Amino acid sequence: EQKARRRFEADLRELGRLQKKYAVKDGAWQGYTYSAGEEEHIEGQLKAVREGIEEKKRRWNEANTQIAVQDSRMKTCLARIREICGEEEPLAGELIKNRDFDAEKSRLEYQGARMRERADGLREAGQGYEENLTALAEYGDLVQTEPVEWEEPPAELNRGQLRRQKGELVRDHKEILEQIRDAREGLTRLLNQTVRMEAFEEDYYKKPLEILLELSGDASRVLRQLATTIQSFDDLIEKLEVDISVVEREKDRIVELLEEYVRDVHANLGRIDDNSTITVRERPLKMLKIQIPAWEENASLYHIRLSDMVDEITRRGIEMFERNENAQEYFGTRLTTKNLYDVAVGIGEVQIRLYKIEEQREYPITWAQVARNSGGEGFLSAFVVLSSLLCYMRRDDTDFFADKNEGKVLVMDNPFAQTNAAHLLKPLMDMAGKANTQLICLTGLGGESIYNRFDNIYVLNLVAASLRNGMQYVKTDHIKGSEPDTLEVSQIEVVEQMELVF
After folding, report:
1. What SS3 state is found at 321?
2. By C-alpha distance, which of 352, 234, 210 is closest to 291?
3. How far is residue 38 from each of residues 32, 50, 315, measured CA to CA in Å?
4. What integer is the mean pLDDT of 425-439?
5. What is the Cα–Cα distance from 254 to 309, expressed in whole angstroms?
6. Is 92 helix (H, G, I), strand (E, B) or coil?
7. CA 259, 264, 269, 270 torsion: positive or negative?
8. Hey, is 347 helix, strand or coil?
9. Through-space distance between the first and last CA atoms of the chain, rounded to whole angstroms
10. Would the N or C end of the chain have less CB density within 10 A of its end CB?
């Protein structure tokens, strides 16, 4: 078995060698029996075929060489034929005819006589050309800049016609010189007038005009300089157009920013009255109601108004800068939140309603009517607005875990001077409770209508200090409420007072 395997492996290697040698595809040998003698016979046939191929290649190369030699000889012969006869192909036999040489001679003599007559005419025309060239010698320095277009070719004109045409050309030339002189004087006069114009006093415009004035004697140089100047102005205009487009985009961006700001103000204005509903006589009343126009319905109008405002501010600002005035104050007075909102939306478009609380009834009133309220009713309206503003200003919409109604402490000095009626104090305290506001009210007034509104009441008395003459301290007595906590001394500092104006 091992010997057979070795023989099998040796035969397999030999089969691979033969397959690679003769480029046989896999499996193509199936059904054939290998024979060394047959292989030698086929090898001999292949060798004979290869030798035959080589012999044919050699004979092919020799034939190509002979073809190249014959092509070269043929080209040489054709060149000689073309040189001698002027033709490469021979004339067809049927086209070759006998010629009458006497008649041909007579024809040629006639043509010679005609040629001599033509030569005499050309000689006379040449003399006419020489005569005109001599007369036009003074114009020899003129340079031809454009091709000449003749109504009639000069070769077809006789001597008199050439003389007449020369006179017309000289006349036209003198007229053109007069026109050039008049045009030069007109150009110089126009440039002098333009240079003295106020609109061209700046060097950027004045210097190109002065250069044109210096070159006014040479029309071609004036045209080149004028083209250069116009091109520089065109380049400047293109640059200014780019700058203007940048300014326009910046203006649009500013209008967009102002529009976003006014829109935020508009949205916030509509949220001020969110927490102003209290219960009055067992029914809910929204004590403050702010009605604002719908932004989306008027967005395009607001955008146009702000754009017009920016244009107006820009125009006025440029005028002030041109007069060397300080425009900062003007910008500061125009670009305020109040003015921006009034221009875009209109403060008059905002409707404010408050409820007037009387002893037996309550009814809505406008913002203008608040000023005509009595003292207590006016104070209640002011407190409603103040509580709504405090609640709005303390809102933190970014804090998702807060109740958005932070506690507040409001210290008021004698708020009951005019607001001591029960029907006014109850909604005032309800509004404070709704706004999560603790009221600390200092007053010298009393009465059940005031005492019943507070959970804790303290009496403050000034007591003279026994250790230091002229000094007093405050002594507190808790007269209503649960057991008080320890009251520590605190310092109250008024940073900024708030004033409500109706």
Report:
1. helix
2. 352
3. 12, 18, 110
4. 79
5. 11
6. coil
7. positive
8. helix
9. 123
10. N
Compute the half-sphere exposure of residue 87: CA atoms within 13 Å on the CB side of its CA.
4
CA distances from 28 to 15, 31, 42, 43, 103 (A): 12, 8, 17, 19, 90
For residue 277, is pLDDT > 80?
no
Name the band, by pLDDT with cuts 50, 70 and 90, for residue 252. Answer: confident
Percent of the chain topping pLDDT 90:
7
| Separation of alpha carbons 434 and 423, rounded Å | 17
Contact (Cβ atoms closer than 8 angstroms) between residue 343 and residue 331: no
Average pLDDT, the chain: 80
Distant-in-sequence, close-in-space partners of 371: CB < 8 Å, separation ≥ 6:
378, 502
User: How confident is the model at residue 164, as a pLDDT?
Assistant: 81
Q: Which residue in 368, 365, 347 sits closest to 356, CA to CA?
A: 365
Q: Calculate the alpha carbon distances from 421 to 380, 386, 447, 451 in Å.
A: 11, 20, 10, 12
Query: Is pLDDT at 163 greater than 60 in this prediction?
Result: yes
Helix (H, G, I), strand (E, B) or coil at 53: helix
pLDDT tens-digit readout, 43-97? 888 888 889 999 999 999 999 999 999 999 988 888 888 888 777 777 777 776 7
- Residue 376 tokens read as 């207590």
What is the pairing mode between strands 408-413 and 437-442? parallel
Q: What distance in Å separates the CA atoms of residue 53 and residue 428, rounded to the nearest whole number? A: 124
- What is the C-alpha to C-alpha distance for residues 355 and 364, in angstroms, rounded to an integer? 4
